Write a sequence for this structure.
């Protein structure tokens, strides 16, 4: 998710972190023959349009993650997403052709680079309104902009997942809001399969043999504690976060890390800090840390380990492969 180094950059980063198949099979022919001709024609039209066969009839009423009751009168045809995780959800539901606005921070899928931008951390509300969206998908931390848009009569669906379970819920909510319930259920089912596959591989690892992990989200030694996606992913992947006894995104001392002697080190900033992995390996005071001695320092792609969207379980799998390569047939 997002990529600024110094303390101010880390504060912005953590703000961003806190912010971002196929239809059902038809009945068999014998049942179809028993249906009135008019109903069969309606079913054929729905299948031909590519819509979900169990699409909820509009209007739909949804209580979003801001606690607001959102009534969507008709299936949205023009969607603006103001957080990368929401953009990935909307595209994951097969609605990319309906997206008319995204943010400067969006980078996946590739098509988003050709879509109109509505700002970055600071949204251009006037620009969003000018795009005449039927639906804006936002995050709980877009607070003021959400209020401004709603005051202008724009429908805003607010998401805000902080866990895997909440991510599933947000995807299903987005599916209901856009008439893609079937597709949303399939996406969630696939994600749950990813999670179960990882759990099955690591479940028999004894507690005293599980790898201990230091998660570094900045060279000033900010880390991910309890209540973060990274902590949940590391634990689900069979690892032990050495800072799981702390909440949120604490900054810790070098001595604390060295004393904890992690087996593995993950860096979330390596994509925008040159030679980040090598710099950590070259820390003289860390030379006796197990992860350094054994070369177990890895870059993590924050887009797939911190964005609460369909790819978050890919991030889980990657973490598990780094922790236990021998169990995941990795060299």
């Amino acid at each position: 998710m997002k990529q600024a180094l110094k303390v101010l950059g880390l504060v912005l980063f953590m703000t961003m972190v806190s912010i971002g198949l196929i239809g059902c099979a038809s009945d068999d022919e014998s049942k179809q023959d028993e249906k009135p001709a008019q109903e069969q024609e309606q079913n054929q039209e729905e299948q031909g349009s590519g819509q979900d066969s169990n699409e909820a009839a509009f209007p739909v009423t949804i209580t979003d993650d801001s606690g607001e009751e959102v009534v969507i009168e008709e299936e949205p045809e023009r969607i603006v997403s103001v957080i990368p995780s929401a953009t990935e959800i909307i595209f994951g539901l097969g609605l990319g052709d309906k997206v008319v606005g995204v943010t400067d921070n969006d980078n996946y899928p590739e098509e988003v680079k050709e879509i109109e931008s509505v700002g970055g951390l600071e949204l251009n509300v006037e620009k969003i309104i000018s795009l005449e969206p039927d639906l804006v998908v936002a995050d709980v931390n877009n607070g003021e902009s959400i209020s401004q848009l709603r005051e202008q009569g724009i429908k805003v669906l607010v998401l805000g997942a902080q866990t895997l379970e909440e991510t599933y819920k947000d995807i299903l909510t987005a599916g209901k809001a856009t008439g893609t319930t079937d597709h949303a259920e399939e996406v969630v089912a696939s994600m749950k399969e990813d999670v179960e596959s990882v759990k099955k591989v690591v479940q028999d690892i004894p507690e005293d043999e599980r790898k201990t992990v230091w998660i570094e989200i900045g060279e000033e030694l900010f880390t991910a504690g309890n209540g973060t996606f990274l902590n949940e992913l590391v634990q689900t992947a069979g690892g032990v976060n050495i800072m799981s006894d702390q909440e949120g995104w604490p900054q810790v001392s070098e001595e604390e890390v060295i004393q904890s002697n992690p087996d593995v080190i993950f860096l979330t900033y390596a994509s925008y800090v040159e030679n980040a992995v090598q710099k950590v390996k070259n820390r003289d005071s860390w030379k006796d840390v197990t992860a350094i001695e054994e070369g177990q320092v890895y870059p993590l792609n924050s887009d797939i380990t911190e964005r609460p969207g369909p790819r978050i379980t890919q991030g889980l799998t990657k973490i598990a492969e780094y922790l236990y390569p021998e169990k995941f047939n990795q060299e």
About this structure: Residues 202-327 form a domain with the Rossmann fold fold (CATH 3.40.50.1980). The longest strand covers residues 135-139. Confidence is low (pLDDT under 50) at residues 1-13, 18-50. The beta strands are 60-63, 69-72, 79-81, 99-101, 135-139, 156-159, 212-216, 240-241, 264-267, 297-299.
